[in-house]
Amino acid sequence: MAQAAALPGAARLELVDGVIHLDPKPALFDAMLTGWVRQQQTRFLSEQGTIKPRVALVRRVADRDPLTGEALWSAPFELPEDYLERHVQLAYAGNVHVAQSRTVDTAHLVVDEVARRAGFYVGMSRGSERNTAYVVTEQARAADP
Q1: What is the pLDDT of residues 128-139, one digit of tens each?
Q2: Which of the two ends of the chain, N or C, has the fewest CB atoms closer than 10 A to its terminal CB?
Q3: pLDDT of residue 74
Q4: Comparing C-alpha atoms, which of 134, 92, 96, 127 is closest to residue 112?
Q5: Domain boundaries, the chain
Q6: CB–CB of 36/22 below 8 Å?
Q7: What's the mean per-residue pLDDT of the chain?
């Protein structure tokens, strides 16, 4: 790794000269993030309201699958085949335009401020057993879980 004084951003405040890391990229990333957090703390920014949400956002963006580049929102997991056979039914997501003339057992519609009456009607009339609308009442911030 480069001399600590030559490292970018706040990493030079965290890493020590002469220490060899087995995997230097994560060490540099963590050092930069830790240094940034300390800088924000010296500015008396709110730990809960400002610093932690921003760190969470940076980690979400940085933690990506090396093969696909997709964000890793959770660790990969598998469901047992017998569970899938008993509890899961193959279905597809779409919008109200592709849902027209379809009938399904249950329909789930996400409604926000751009929804129109006609689209709402289509989405809420597709399910033969149940129709559920999920209404967005406020926009989530990027760092919210």
Answers
A1: 999 999 888 876
A2: C
A3: 62
A4: 134
A5: 4-62, 81-135
A6: no
A7: 76
